[in-house]
Amino acid sequence: MSAIVPSYIAKVARAKKHLVDLQAEIDAYAESRPYAVGEQVEGKKKQKLRRRLIFTGDPANTDIPIIAADVIYNLRSSLDHLMGALVSNSRRGSVMFPVFFQGVWESVLTGENEQRTKERGRWTTCVKGVAPEAVAFLKKVQPPDEGSETHANLLRTLNEWSNRDRHERLPVVAPGLRGMMVRFKKADGAYGHGIGVPRNEDAIFNDRTEIRSIPNDAADIEIAGVPVIAIRVGAAKRYLEIPEHLRLTVRMIEEDIIPSLSPYIRGS
Question: Whole-prediction pTM value?
Answer without folding.
Answer: 0.89
